[in-house]
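Input (structure):
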């Protein structure tokens, strides 16, 4: 399918993308997750053929795309700002690529009607783009991208402009549409919740490199680095110093710690403390500093800045016991 090999790009002397290599397999949704300014859109533009990499190659089905112009790549693109044609009605917006490809009118009708139904937009054919809400416009943009049955779909923060409740609904819809369509997709976002909802696989982009790749569950349980753990909000990140090769001292206690790295006494590392219910995990006894209401649970801040989530609210000042899984971060 799609392969990127050793892609690099520099802007104004700064290495924005540094030797990026990854592949997207048939039917797979890959989320490229990174902070704003990390080069996500630049990478998508290169795959789309709107920009060229300085180094490296982009292949689809083992064919190098360097000499294939954007409009012949047969990739669908959906942006944050929808990119719909304001002078065309909804039907013609969705039909645009099909008319360009000179498909027969009955086939165009069939495809557009079926997509409108799928997007919950039946009856919207004659409406103007400007009469639609943001969520509806984004569904039209998605229908337009799907209409030509592209061999790859690309999304650049498509839900970024929508408010929270609408966004969560559309994330789930999009997920089921992508699974059903079976078209491989690259979905770019800075929102970790969105990536966890949509992705079969997540690529975490930081300082020009993919610093972590894996399924949402893999990345969640082991983010790899302190930066990644904080960015993903995957648990409590704290500092510790080894008091012996397999024991570490932190502000909230001393823990036995085994990991694949060799550590010497005195060495300082970052640790991930994840709340856990498993018997045999470390137990902390800490004073409650603050309790926040979070719908069906309470977010509790303990001494040392440790955050846990509990069903029942403890009292501020009370000392409670919580179990945590301790993991080392590189
Ligand atoms: P992201 O989509 O992750 O927010 P972008 O790919 O849009 O990141 O851009 C990352 C950075 O690359 C920008 O902050 C900007 O400094 C630089 N950049 C992007 N495009 C250009 C360009 N055409 N010319 C100069 N710098 C650019
Ligand atoms: Mg961007």
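Output (sequence):
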């Amino acid at each position: 399918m799609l392969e990127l090999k050793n892609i690099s790009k520099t802007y104004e002397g700064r290495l924005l993308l540094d030797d990026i290599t990854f592949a997207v397999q048939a039917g797979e949704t890959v989320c490229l997750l990174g902070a704003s300014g990390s080069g996500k859109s630049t990478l998508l533009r290169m795959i789309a053929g709107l920009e060229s990499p300085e180094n490296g190659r982009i292949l689809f089905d083992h064919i190098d795309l360097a000499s294939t112009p954007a409009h012949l790549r047969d990739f669908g693109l959906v942006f944050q700002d929808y990119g719909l044609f304001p002078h065309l009605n909804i039907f013609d917006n969705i039909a645009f690529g099909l008319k360009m490809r000179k498909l027969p009118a009955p086939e165009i009708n069939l495809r557009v009607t079926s997509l409108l139904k799928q997007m919950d937009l039946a009856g919207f054919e004659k409406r103007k783009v400007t009469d639609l809400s943001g969520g509806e416009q984004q569904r039209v943009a998605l229908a337009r991208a799907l209409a030509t049955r592209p061999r790859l779909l690309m999304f650049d923060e498509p839900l970024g402009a929508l408010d929270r409740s609408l966004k969560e609904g559309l994330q789930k819809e999009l997920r089921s549409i992508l699974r059903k369509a079976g078209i491989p997709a690259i979905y770019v976002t800075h929102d970790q919740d969105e990536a966890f909802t949509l992705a079969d696989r997540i690529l975490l982009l930081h300082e020009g490199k993919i610093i972590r790749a894996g399924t949402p569950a893999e990345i969640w349980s082991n983010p790899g680095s302190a930066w990644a753990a904080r960015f993903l909000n995957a648990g409590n990140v704290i500092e510790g110093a080894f008091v012996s090769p397999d024991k570490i001292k932190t502000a909230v206690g001393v823990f036995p710690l085994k990991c694949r790295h060799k550590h010497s006494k005195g060495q300082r590392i970052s640790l991930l403390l994840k709340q856990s219910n498993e018997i045999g995990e470390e137990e902390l006894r800490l004073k409650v500093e603050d309790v926040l209401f979070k719908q069906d649970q309470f977010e509790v801040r303990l001494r040392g800045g440790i955050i846990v989530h509990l069903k029942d609210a403890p009292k501020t000042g009370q000392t409670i016991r919580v179990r945590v899984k301790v993991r080392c971060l590189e």
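Notes: The chain has eight helices and 18 strands. The chain has a mean pLDDT of 92.
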